[in-house]
Amino acid sequence: MEKFANTRLPAFLKSVTLALLIGALLIVSAQAQVDQNRVRAHMEFLASDEMQGRGSGTIYEKLAGMYLASQMREFGIEPAGDKDGKALGAYIQTVAIDRKTLGKTTLTLGGETEGKALTPLRVANSAITGKFQRISITETAEKGSIALVRTEDGTIKREQFGNLIGSPANAVIVIAPPALMKQMSGFARRGSSITSIRGVESSGGFASLYLIAEADAESLESVTNGSDVAINSEVADSSTSYTWNAVGKIKGNGDDSEAILLSAHMDHVGVRENAPGDDKIFNGADDDASGCVAVLELARIIAAGEKPRRTIYFAFFGSEERGGFGSRFFVNTLEIPLEKLVANLQFEMIGRPDPKVGPDELWLTGYKRSDLGSELAKTGAKIVADPHPEENFFQRSDNITLARRGVVAHTVSSFGLHKDYHQASDEIETIDFEYMTKSISSMVKPVRWLADTTWKPSWNEGMKP
Ligand SMILES: [Zn+2]
Question: Rounded to the nearest 5°, which phi and psi values hold at 142?
Fold first, then answer.
């Protein structure tokens, strides 16, 4: 530089400019990176003993939701929870779960007061009406009927059970000899209640199923097909419990109002006094504090960047561990038509690498069911097919709730079937923070791409659940 002494000042200015530019780039890249300390901080809070294992529908689940909501507020993400929610509560969706315990259940003909006793096995509604139809178990009932079904040999085979519940009838009543009555008694006890989510059409999508004793069925011989019949169950007891979701969104600037959903479940199984050993708290560090933190870090980075083309919903679901009540409420009360929600990625158990795949890889449940996984891989996602297809993980997280409603929905995970699954030992100490940080980082670009592209994922032929 000495050689060009006369240009020393401009050169100095150049280097200052260069330094400023590098500095600015560093700030930008610092903002745009998944941060291991942040990952650790969120995990240490969510999976702490003080959070009591975030039991489904407990105040600890809601507290996790408030924490996640508080973070979303800090990132400048809009609340998308209860419309009348105030402050952080605006991110919270309150889900009421009504449970009715059924008493005496009877089948009555038009105008009749005394009915025939039925044993409920699986019930969608406490009052059901329909046209009487007599069929054999190999025949399909008519839509809207109440079908009286005769078995071939006094038993219900496993696949027949599925067919009965999936039938287009409103209800199916199987004629049961004493042996079948006895065999199904355990099932009957479990089936004697109806659980519904308030504000969600309780169609359930299945035909109610009952047994009738052989002797009572004989007295129905004279009833003609097509007669009006009704099934009524007394409600012996009813109760309401609650669960919560935490939901935020970044509104997209695209003109087709499409959206994507990034989700995880914030609940775990709580405290179990009957667990072996001294530790009764099921911390759920990997399941699914890790997934929540992945969604949170993606939310922070996306919120710090330019507006996406598609709206992005960030949802932390409650009561996944008890039947997906949170996600069911979410999908049924979404403010946009479901066909506008083009994809869902649920994040589950990404806190430890899976030895069955590459050391820096994640896997996608139901990979071959749609073109989403392969397309994300093309944009740099280190995503491969689920190496444990026998575990049916595609059906075992909140993504299935959305998938059944048509949304292309999968779960991203690296669960290597470790022994701490659903144990008190699913603790923060077992988390590989370096791996976890890297794996979340690997999803930043692909998720951003999915939010900005006009490409739309679709189910492969015959693979939609
Ligand atoms: Zn889980």
Answer: -80, 155
- Burial code of 132-149, b = ≥16 C-beta within 10 A, e = fewer? bbbbebeeebbeebbbbb
How remote is the CA of residue 347 from the centroid of ligand 1, in Å?
9
Those residues whose C-beta lies under 8 Å from the C-beta of residue 58, and which sit 6 or more positions away, are 52, 270
- Ligand 1: centre distance to CA 286 (Å): 8
Number of domains, the chain: 2
Same domain (yes/no): 328, 277: yes
Dist. CA 458 → ligand 1 center (Å): 25
Q: How many angstroms is it from 177 CA to the middle of ligand 1?
A: 41
CATH (domain of 201): 3.50.30
Ligand 1 centroid–CA 333 distance in Å is 23
Statement: residue 270 has pLDDT above 90: yes
Q: How high does pLDDT run on average in the chain?
A: 91
Q: Ligand 1 centroid to 54 CA: how many Å?
A: 12
Percent share of the chain, pLDDT over 70: 92
Rounded distance from Cα 186 to ligand 1 centre (Å): 28
pLDDT digits (tens, 9 = 90+) for 117-149: 999 998 988 999 999 999 999 999 999 999 999
Instruction: Give the C-alpha separation, 378 to 120, whole Å.
Output: 51
In a domain, 19, yes or no: no
| Distance from the alpha carbon of residue 459 to the mean position of ligand 1, in angstroms | 24
Residue 233: burial class (beta carbons within 10 Å; 0-12, 13-18, 19+) = buried
- For residue 215, what are the domain limits? 111-226
At 299-355, the pLDDT tens digits run 999 999 999 999 999 999 999 999 899 999 999 999 999 999 999 999 999 999 999
CA of 426 to the centre of ligand 1 (A): 12
Claim to verify: residue 120 and residue 221 sit in the same structural domain? yes
Same-domain status, 298 and 436: yes
Is 441 domain-assigned? yes
Q: Tell me if the pTM is above 0.85.
A: no
At 114, is the pLDDT very low, low, confident or very high (cuts 50, 70, 90)? confident
